[in-house]
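User: I want to check something. If I give you two sequences, will you return the structure for each one separately, not as a complex?

Assistant: Yes, each is folded on its own. Here is the first sequence with its structure:
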Amino acid sequence: MKRIVVAGAGGFIGGHLVKKLVKESHQVRAVDIKPLNEWYQVSEGAENLVLDLKLKDNCYQAANGYNEVFNLAADMGGMGFIEKNKAACMLSVLINTHLLMASRDCGIDRFFYASSACVYNATKQTDPANPGLRESDAYPALAEDGYGWEKLFSERMCRHFSEDFGITTRVARFHNVYGPYGTYNGGREKVPAAMCRKVIEAGITGNKEIVIWGDGLQTRSFMYIDDCIKGISDIMYSNIKEPLNLGSSEMVSINGLVDIVEEIAGYKLERKYDLDAPKGVRGRNSENTLIRKYLGWEPSIPLRTGMKKTFEWINQQLAEENKSKKTISRFNK
């Protein structure tokens, strides 16, 4: 049994990770800034703390008495959020900095940092037919403004705390994680969840249109949550010292993603393209040579398989919301 801190435990990935660690009978301290009733998942077998980890004292409180840290905490969301909240994204640097300091002083043995494909040089992401971003493509540095630069800086902090203080640090660069128990509305949702929600809402309202940000030709790869959780664990307990891609290499255009969701839903929609909306880089994909070399594995759950599970979960949430609204409306008459 390990004593493990999960920072960002109230978020999408953090909630899934805590659930796995508790199931494996580890002693888990789950920490997030959000009130407990706003966490995406709450595991009763964990010690659940509501703390703002941008504050140094709170990081010491979180790390004290434990021996491993998974840092998944960040103020972030989809492209619509990170393009309009660059300062907020940059302030997440305080979380990783203070957690590393607390880890050094509290005797933490292993430290995992969740980085992002947003660290990659933008000039290597101008073609929709992206051959895949290798780990070396982060330099020379030209990261996503705000969020990407914070991630790249925090990667370096992990490296230097390892070199100078002997903490074993591991870094994974996430490529678009999706699945059930994630954000699907409100402005922080990412593309897979947003597309599921839009298609489902079109079916509910009868408005057979869908608005797509950009021209739909942008390409991405999307990793299902189960692959992500396995990758986090495997990387954490590996001997891999450099940052490593953690993402699917199954690239798809945004139009192609909509095709998949429409197929799952069983109906087609008229597509409207908002060319002024945030759309990010032109093409991004995960190049997985290194993860296959080091781990003999790579994320491989097919996109359609994961999207079907995600669609069904979001469909259930929206159905429950609509049922609740109708009930409230009936009582208000």
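And separately, the second sequence with its own structure:
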Amino acid sequence: MKVPRGHMRVGAIDIGSNSIRLLVADVQAGAGPGELVTVARAGEPCRLGRGLEKSGTVDLEAADRAVTVAVEFARRARSMGAVHTVVGATAALRRAENGAAVAAAIGERTGLRVRILSGQDEARLVYQSVVLGLRSTASRSPCVVFDLGGGSTEIVSGLGSEAGRWVSLGFGAVSLTEKFVRSNPIGADEVSGLVDEVRSILMHECAFMPGVTPILAGVGGTVTVLACLDRSMAVYEPLLIEGWLIESGRLEQLIHRVSSSTEEVRSGWPILGSGRSDIVVAGAIVVGLLAERFRSRGLVCSTQGLRYGLARLAATEAEHGPGTSPMELPAGEGS
């Protein structure tokens, strides 16, 4: 695809705890941060967070898989004409004893610097991406945005595109599945243990955040699965679920449908794809607890997560040089 006149093409690679995602996008030179057009996007499971809670290290097989996927995504970005690609890694490499070594291996093979993002970096970039993606829906409204990943969950409250208070919590769909889920379908005692732990963390870590919000927006694989189920979609189509509101009553029904199903049933849902049928139950339960904590008329689905923030960072650096797009929240607003 030809780059439009007056635009630059950039790439972003998000190395998460469950999957690695690619975005190639066009950005109008000199335009504001919201001007971004998707050219291509892709994702592959790698499960870097597998076993991390017990071992403290990233599994070498998963690391090799991550290197292979990242190399291919970097090649795709270059072949499509990306002039600059930013690679960001999240909770798995942030926590693992060998996280820096895995990042270095990916960087050496791709020829790209891998940035291990702090929870603060991740929260700010996700919040901006989600709000800008929702456009007028969230441009002037108080918002709470969460990113439910494999190994961590970022929650940010703000006003319009201005992020305010934030927290990065040490649980995600992969880590909670490994800790609590043993039965198929999940047992009542397992649900109770998971709910008690997450609810307690939310109560203590999010005490400074609003209890009610006009807009509760979520990003991540679990959220997109719930939106696709709500729309009865057999094929994942981002444009059809971006900004989609799952009303509260319907959200509860969907979470029950997911959490009461067997993995064999979930594996037959086309919208789940590979690498998610086992972890979506824990993810769905967490989404329900987040909706309980941050009361709203429902959950707004966003498909524009961290990689969109990384792409905007890539565009700023390509135009003005490294260090021109600070990745910090306002001082004193975090925890």
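Because they were folded independently, the notes below concern the second chain alone. DSSP finds 13 helices and eleven strands in the chain. The mean pLDDT is 92.
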